[in-house]
Amino acid sequence: MEQLARSFGWARKRGLTAVLVAASLLAPLAGGAVPAAAHEGWSDTAVHVVGGPVLAGPDLAVLNVTSGTHLLQLSAISPQDGHVLWTKPSSPSYITAGVAYSPASVGPIVLNLAPAGAPTDPDVRVQGIDVATGNVAWTVPGEGVVTDAPVICGNGNDFCVDAANAAGAGYLLALNAVTGAIAAAVAGPARSMSSAQPGLYSLGSLWELDKTSPTLAQLSSGNKLLCCQTVPELFGGQNYDPNGGWDFVTKDGLDVGSVGYKPNGGRMVLDQYKTVGISVTTGKVDWRVAGDYECGSAPRP
Fold first, then answer.
1. Alpha-carbon distance 160 to 150, whole Å?
2. CA–CA separation, 13 vs 210, rounded Å?
3. Residue pLDDT, tens place only, 157-189
4. Domain that holds residue 294
5. Which residues neighbour 157 within 8 Å (Cβ) at sequence distance 6 or greater?
6. In 41, 91, 112, 285, which residue has its Cα 20 to 30 A from 147's Cα atom?
7. What percent of the chain clears pLDDT 90, i.e. is strictly above it?
8. Cα 61 to Cα 193: distance, rounded to the nearest angstrom
9. 146: which DSSP letter?
10. Which residues is 210 bridged to in the sheet?
11. pTM of the model
């Protein structure tokens, strides 16, 4: 597995657009001054938060942007007084445009996509950071691009990171949170279709594969691809495409959700949206109903 990482080379992935996080796209949750104590606790208006916070060990981890330059950072904040404990440069790499995401942490380790070169460089080094100290606990060998927001997997013990190898093919890497060792490498997945709560497990294991026609597959708990069908097959038409957004969760043995529908003259064709229930074991559609699942409330591009 380590040899795979060393040979990654991680070339930029074909067909995906590099997008850099800007404050104008991700509305800050705060912005302005220094932590101020209050009777009910504290407030910090100096940190422009765009992801999180999540609890990482005894502290909080957030994604925030710098003032003026709007460069992405990973920061740790004391929950006692709101002071920033440390800050490190971070990168959205090739994560789908407009998809909001939060830091992923397992115990005292939080994952960071550290720019390999310039702060806006989509090529990154995947690192595990000790939240208490800000020290780098481990670094995955090699550099490359990450094509989807990292999530917690492996029964809560691993980080799942979707990356691209030197040939541009997608690989889903399951990384041991303590050591950074590659627990599994699965060829094919390009981005998760399942909603994830900040800092918690993904709410399912449905993935889009790295194929010309959008194709979905279920990933088993043993990191095996169970089934594959194209989105047009699943939704019943060529105009359905996750590039127009998506929203899925796994419930009662079904992947339930929606994808976007091709606009007509720049307008959303709302009467064509569908919600489907896909069996996690067979990949077959159990049912289809009209409407956009949860009105698209999950993060969408």
1. 6
2. 9
3. 889 898 886 667 778 898 999 999 998 888 888
4. 204-301
5. 106, 176, 177
6. 285
7. 40
8. 24
9. B
10. none
11. 0.73
Peptide bond into 53 cis (omega under 30): yes
DSSP 215-264: EEEEE-TTS-EEEEEEHHHHHTSTTEEEEEEEEEEEETTEEEEEEEE--B
Q: Which helix (H) or strand (E) holds 136?
A: strand 136-139
Domain count, the chain: 2
Considering the domain architecture, whether residues 168 and 278 belong to the same structural domain is answered as no
Count of other CB atoms within 10 angstroms of residue 113: 26
Interatomic CA distance for residues 99 and 283, integer angstroms: 25
Quick one: pLDDT at residue 196?
57
DSSP state of 128: E
Instruction: Identify the residue with better confidence: 197 or 50.
Output: 50
Domain boundary among 187, 212, 247: 187
CA distance 196 to 102: 9
Half-sphere exposure for 223 (CA within 13 Å, toward CB): 19
Per-residue pLDDT at 4 exceeds 70:
no
